[in-house]
Structure formats: structure tokens, C-alpha cells
């Protein structure tokens, strides 16, 4: 199997911490153990898709930020507050194959992108209604959100068990009310 070099979004740089180049980083998974000294990370301006805009740095130190869900991160080559401030707002990414292996019943949200979203028509009926395709992952600060495109419009679905009833290799099955779906265009 070939290595997977896709970049996976871990979080974003909230700002500098101190005067020696440390970063304050908000992770999508605050409990992640992915960040450790020696790990190579990529940094890209939010919304940029151009790989030429990516800066790469190796982690030299990681520490929790007391009283916060953020972490403090030190990088090779980022040794001053000005250099850390230059990364403010950047996305923090890692190569997919550098992520830890998962148990059979676990998944990375990034792996759901491009999967169709379906809802069972009726508990007694056969078949599903197509509710769109997952086109991205977002966050509202409290929870991760699946960005789903349906008939040219996007809608957001909290990535929580009350809505997601099954994740299969080729689809995501959800239980949502009609009022959560985008309205048809007039």
C-alpha cells in the first residue's frame, strides 16, 4: 500500500504565546495525542488550497495551556513572537499516514469527506433518501460539523451520535428532521 500524503486538518493557530515563538493552537480534538516532539506539521492560511502557501515545521515541544482547551506548541525555526504571530489564523495540518492507527470502530472525520449522506425513508420501509455529500468538516467551537452539499446548497450537521446512526465504508446514515435540511430554492 502506498503512503497517504493527504493533509488532514488538526486545528488552527490562535496566536503567539510569550516572546520566544511559542504558538497557541486550537485543536479540533483537544484530547489528541498526535502532537509530539519530532512530528512534522504543515501550516496553511485558512481557506488557501495552494500547496505553495504551505509552511512546514517540526514540533520541538508541546504543552497544555492552563485554563484553556488550547495547547502551546514550539516549532523548529520559529524562535520569536513575530514569527509566531505571522502564523496566526493558519490551519495546522498533518500528513494522513502520520496519524495514529485506529480501532475498527473508530474513524477520522476527514475520512467522511466525499461520502454520501442517507436517511432511512421510514422505519418500516425499504430504502433511503439521499441528503447530499459530505464536502468538508467545520466547527462551531463546541462541536465538529459535517458540511453537506445537497442540490447546490450546503447544510451543517453536528457530528454527534444522536444524528449519525451508522458510518459505513461507502456511506453515512443519519437520522435528522426535515427542518434541518436546506429548503428548496423557490
TrEMBL record:
<comment type="similarity">
    <text>Belongs to the RimM family.</text>
</comment>
<dbReference type="InterPro" id="IPR036976">
    <property type="entry name" value="RimM_N_sf"/>
</dbReference>
<dbReference type="InterPro" id="IPR011961">
    <property type="entry name" value="RimM"/>
</dbReference>
<dbReference type="GO" id="GO:0005737">
    <property type="term" value="C:cytoplasm"/>
</dbReference>
<protein>
    <recommendedName>
        <fullName>Ribosome maturation factor RimM</fullName>
    </recommendedName>
</protein>
<dbReference type="GO" id="GO:0043022">
    <property type="term" value="F:ribosome binding"/>
</dbReference>
<dbReference type="GO" id="GO:0042274">
    <property type="term" value="P:ribosomal small subunit biogenesis"/>
</dbReference>
<dbReference type="Pfam" id="PF01782">
    <property type="entry name" value="RimM"/>
</dbReference>
<keyword id="KW-0963">Cytoplasm</keyword>
<keyword id="KW-0690">Ribosome biogenesis</keyword>
<dbReference type="GO" id="GO:0005840">
    <property type="term" value="C:ribosome"/>
</dbReference>
<comment type="subunit">
    <text>Binds ribosomal protein uS19.</text>
</comment>
<keyword id="KW-0143">Chaperone</keyword>
<feature type="domain" description="RimM N-terminal">
    <location>
        <begin position="10"/>
        <end position="97"/>
    </location>
</feature>
<keyword id="KW-0698">rRNA processing</keyword>
<dbReference type="GO" id="GO:0006364">
    <property type="term" value="P:rRNA processing"/>
</dbReference>
<dbReference type="InterPro" id="IPR009000">
    <property type="entry name" value="Transl_B-barrel_sf"/>
</dbReference>
<dbReference type="InterPro" id="IPR011033">
    <property type="entry name" value="PRC_barrel-like_sf"/>
</dbReference>
<dbReference type="InterPro" id="IPR002676">
    <property type="entry name" value="RimM_N"/>
</dbReference>
<comment type="function">
    <text>An accessory protein needed during the final step in the assembly of 30S ribosomal subunit, possibly for assembly of the head region. Essential for efficient processing of 16S rRNA. May be needed both before and after RbfA during the maturation of 16S rRNA. It has affinity for free ribosomal 30S subunits but not for 70S ribosomes.</text>
</comment>
